[in-house]
Each structure stands twice: as structure tokens, then as C-alpha cells.
Amino acid sequence: MTRSDNADLSVLHVIVPLRGAASGKSRLGLALDAEERQVLILGMLASTLDALAGWPAAAAVHLVTDEAQTMAVVHRARPGISLVTEPPDGGLNGALRAARDAAVGSGATAILILPADLPLLSTAALEALLDGADAALAAGEGRPVVAIASADARRGTNALLLSPPDVIEPQFGDASLEAHLRAAAEAEASVQLVIDPALGFDLDTPDDLERLDLGRLLELEQLGQRMLQPEPAAEAV
Questions:
Q1: 23 lies in a domain?
Q2: How many separate domains does the chain show?
């Protein structure tokens, strides 16, 4: 083996990267204006955080973003979330490494990197991913574990569960699924590829938007609007 560390899933921290709530998802620009995209992005984030709040396996959640406005919104709406500022350089993967280090510093023995653009995410899907990690742990007899949920197109990575947290480096970007699988093989990790519709569907393009059930889209928009609503002013005594 190239590593001496063994897998341990007992303290799992979740890292949620969110890039550009105020200006992101530009490919949706043909279908939604900037304000509508912001509401939808925040709605998917709220849905993700709600699913994690109902998932007992998540010991802590770290949100990574480069936007002060988004950090302020989340700090007000979800005060229990740890906020990690994306470094000015290093890109998404550098930000994920910073969040991983913060998680390890807080006692994490495993991390789950979970992007905030999965509109169908549920606690059941998260349990399926954890079951995959458990299967990899059993098959590997304690060797490092890498559990991956692929995007529908089978090129991207929509969830990445690692134990130890630094068994491989995050390599999100073009063809990230292949990159993560290659890195896991080089680390001699026990690997489980998890195929789940709720984890595989990420919302990036107008075509994705058309595939999403209208009722679910309205729910996400309502969640996003609530995230943006200021707290009611305290009444004078």
C-alpha cells in the first residue's frame, strides 16, 4: 500500500462548495435572468442543507463560497453551518482542500464533498452513498475508502466520500470522475461507484431545467426566496 492510514467513517464532515450564488449558473441564462438564477441556486443550497440536517451521519457541514453576500445569507438563515472562505487563488479544488483541512482540524475522520446543485437530493440518497462507503470499507478490510456518485453523463463527480479525508486530492473539473478513479487506484483505496438518480442529476443547463418536475422547481424557488428574506425586526419593549 502507498498509505498507512486506515478508513474510519465514524466522524463524517460534509463539505458543500457553492460558487456564484449571485452570478453563477451562467448556462441557465437563456432560461432564467440573474435574479431568478440566484433564487434557484439558493433554493438548491437550502434543500441540500435541509437534507443534511436530517441525516444523522453528518457530524458537521462546511460551506465553501467566495461570495460575502452568500456567506451573510447562510450565516443568518443557517447559523449552525461552518463557513469557509474560498482562497483568492487555487480555484475550486484549492478551496476544497482548505475546507478539508478545516474539517480535519475539527476531528473529521471522513469527508463528503457534495456540490449544492443537486435538486433531487434526499437523505435516502445520502444513505445509499454511505452504504456504498460501508461496502467499500468491508471489501477493503480497513484500507482507505473512496465512494463516488457519478453525474448522469458519467464524466463528472456529484459526490465524493473519502476516508481518510486526504486519501486522494479533489480533482473537480472536466472528466473528474475518471481523474478521481485514477487517483483512488494509485492510492490503492477500496472504491465504490454509486449510481443513484437523486445524486446523478445536477442542474446546469436549460435542458436540465426542462427535465426537472415543475412542482419541484417551484419548491426550490420558494426555498430560495425564504433564504433571501430578512429576519423580522424585533418589536420594541
A1: yes
A2: 1
Is it the case that residue 149 has pLDDT exceeding 80? yes
C-alpha to C-alpha distance for 161 and 22, rounded to whole angstroms: 28
Q: What is the pLDDT of residues 11-60, one digit of tens each?
A: 999 999 987 654 455 556 456 777 888 899 999 999 999 999 999 999 99
Considering only CA atoms, which of 96, 114, 117 is closest in space to residue 20?
117
pTM of the model: 0.90
Quick check: is 5 in a domain?
no
In a domain, 237, yes or no: no
Burial 192-208 (b: 16+ CB within 10 A, else e): bbbebebbbbbbeeeeb
Residue 75: give its domain's CATH number. 3.90.550.10
Instruction: Name the residue range of residue 117's domain.
Output: 19-228
Cβ(89)–Cβ(121) below 8 Å = no
Q: In this predicted model, which residue has the larger pLDDT, 5 or 227?
A: 227
Question: Are 32 and 78 a contacting pair, CB within 8 Å?
Answer: no
Question: How many whole angstroms separate alpha carbon 215 and alpha carbon 114?
Answer: 24
Distance CA 128, CA 172 (A): 22
